């Protein structure tokens, strides 16, 4: 099994299983971060921030992943700009404006991973630099805190969480806040209305 920087990030924290039922060790998702926009060069630690956030989130939802047949999983995170994410948003959601993060879940695996199988694909996440920077500045929070939040948010969408209803939004936001607290990041929902 390949070791990722996400695995080394979690070694510094105790793994957390939200469900008390013992289970086989879940392999952390293999995450590949692709920088496709030059504006991300100003954030040299973005890849490490994303790996750490996703590794921490995976520790919280490992039962969810295992229940869906993901013994091993991989995902890709594309760091793009507002032009790139606006194109994705228009093509996939019919919304002609940039957004901070988009998630594209893969189809669920049809068979469980065997010992010789490649990891199942969870899906892809795209994060836009300018929107992320603007939101962090407007909310007066460190950029890496907001980037961590968006990585966690996108990852939870890949796992199946959503915020289409108020009840689902509350579940997802509470989980995000709990994961971010593990990372030492304040609750992003504490002082404002629910994000749409």
Structure description:
With 196 residues, the protein is α/β, with parallel strands linked by helices. It has a single domain, classed as Metalloproteases ("zincins"), catalytic domain (Collagenase (Catalytic Domain)), CATH 3.40.390.30. It contains 7 helices and 4 strands, in the order αβααβαββααα. Strands 1-2-4-3 form a 4-stranded mixed β-sheet, sandwiched between helices. α1 crosses α2 and α2 packs across α6. The radius of gyration is 16 Å and the shape is globular. The protein starts with a helix and ends in a 14-residue tail after the last helix.
Counting helices, strands and paired strands, the structural category is alpha/beta
Give the fraction of residues assigned to helices. 40-55%
H-E string? HEHHEHEEHHH
Q: In what range is the share of β-strand residues?
A: 5-15%
The number of E-state strands comes to 4
Number of domains: 1
Quickly count the helices.
7
Per the principal axes of the C-alpha atoms, what is the gross shape?
A: globular
Mean pLDDT score, rounded?
Answer: 82
Uncertain runs with pLDDT below 50, 5 residues or more? Answer: 1-25
Class in CATH? Answer: Alpha Beta
Write down the Rg: 16 Å
Largest sheet descriptor: 4 strands, mixed
How far from one another are the termini? Answer: 38 Å
Q: What is the annotated CATH architecture?
A: 3-Layer(aba) Sandwich
Oligomer: single chain
Task: Briefly note the CATH topology name.
Answer: Collagenase (Catalytic Domain)
Kindly report the spatial arrangement of strands forming the biggest sheet. Answer: 1-2-4-3
For this structure, what is the CATH homologous superfamily?
A: Metalloproteases ("zincins"), catalytic domain
């Amino acid at each position: 099994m390949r070791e990722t920087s996400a695995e080394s990030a979690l070694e510094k924290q105790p793994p957390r299983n939200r469900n008390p039922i013992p289970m086989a060790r879940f392999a952390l998702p293999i995450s590949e971060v692709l920088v496709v926009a030059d504006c991300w060069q100003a954030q040299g630690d973005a890849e490490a921030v994303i790996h750490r956030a996703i590794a921490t989130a995976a520790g919280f939802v490992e039962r969810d992943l295992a229940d869906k047949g993901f013994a091993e999983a991989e995902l890709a995170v594309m760091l793009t700009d507002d032009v790139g994410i606006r194109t994705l948003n228009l093509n996939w959601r019919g919304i002609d404006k940039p957004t901070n993060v988009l998630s594209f879940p893969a189809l669920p695996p049809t068979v469980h991973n065997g010992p010789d199988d490649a990891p199942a694909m969870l899906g892809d996440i795209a994060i836009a630099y300018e929107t992320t920077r603007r939101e962090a500045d407007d909310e007066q929070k460190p950029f890496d805190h907001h980037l961590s939040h968006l990585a966690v948010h996108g990852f939870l969408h890949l796992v199946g969480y959503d915020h289409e209803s108020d009840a689902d939004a509350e579940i997802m936001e509470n989980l995000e806040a709990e994961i971010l607290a593990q990372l030492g990041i304040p609750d992003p929902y504490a002082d404002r209305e629910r994000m749409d």
